[in-house]
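Q: What would this chain look like folded?
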Amino acid sequence: MKEALELPSQVRAFLAEKLLESLDFKEPFDLSSEWKEEIDRRYRQIDEDQAQLTPADEVFTEAGKRLQK
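A: My prediction, written as structure tokens:
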């Protein structure tokens, strides 16, 4: 763990992403009706160009800056 925390931030972010991906469920799971509605709402916003999307690299860069404070 100590060695992983000493890696450069971009490498740690990549490692974290891969670790999270490894937790993907192999079996289907039920979402609550509230989450299904929220997902549908967000899809509609994207399809209707009502959502302001941000490229992932910008999100990760900003998150990295905030974590280093």
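Helices lie at 2-5, 9-21, 33-47, 56-67.
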